[in-house]
Automatic annotation (TrEMBL):
Residues 1-113 form the Thioredoxin domain. SUPFAM superfamilies: Thioredoxin-like (SSF52833). InterPro entries: Thioredoxin-like_sf, Thioredoxin_domain. This is Thioredoxin domain-containing protein. It comes from Entomoneis paludosa. PROSITE patterns: THIOREDOXIN_2. GO terms for biological process: cell redox homeostasis. Belongs to the thioredoxin family. Pfam families: Thioredoxin.
Length: 181
């Protein structure tokens, strides 16, 4: 199953773990991840591949060495890394080792309590931040100065995105209590 198909199967929270079999930090992380999977993830019969019990969230693991191009296209730079998705849209990403696995649990608890409107807002913020980051990286990585956009154009785009995000945040905070810490 391809990642986008997996994420689109239903609206529950999805945790996608990126790891490498040779990574010692990943091996320690997996102990906590496996415990979490037993508590919160669907149960699938390994011999038949059929769903035995639907739980509160879905989980997938992607081995870096086997899916390098996918991992790179998603911006995975450190291992282990966890992405949380809802409705096929990325909510957050965490690059933490076993000693900070509590941050993964905290993020799951936070996003599990979100209303559909909160999820939409969180994904918009995440996507806006990624757009800003991509714009900065693209502009920085441009080899030929003649082809690069002027710094005024880049700043104008960045200002528009930041204004949009600020306006969205102000509307959200005035209409309901803050959900971020």
């Amino acid at each position: 199953v391809d990642l986008q198909e997996f994420l689109a199967e239903d609206d529950r929270l999805c945790l996608v773990k990126f790891y490498a079999s040779w990574c010692k930090s990943c091996q320690k992380f997996n102990i906590h991840h496996d415990k979490l999977a037993k508590e919160k993830s669907d149960w699938v019969d390994s011999s038949t591949g059929k769903l035995v019990k639907e739980n509160e969230m879905r989980m997938a693991s992607i081995e870096y060495s086997k899916c390098q191009s996918l991992c790179k296209s998603l911006g995975v730079e450190k291992l282990p890394t966890v992405f949380l998705y809802s409705k096929g849209r990325k909510l957050t990403e965490l690059s933490v080792g076993a000693s900070k696995f509590g941050k993964v649990r905290d993020a799951i608890a936070q996003y599990s309590s979100f209303s559909p409107m909160d999820i939409d807002f969180a994904t918009t913020i995440q996507e806006g931040g990624e757009m800003i980051k991509a714009n900065v990286l693209t502009t920085t990585a441009t080899a030929a100065p003649a082809q690069a956009e002027s710094s005024d154009v880049v700043e104008e785009r960045r200002a528009k995105i930041e204004a949009l995000l600020t306006t969205s945040a102000a509307k959200a905070s005035s209409s309901r209590k803050k959900w971020w810490s």
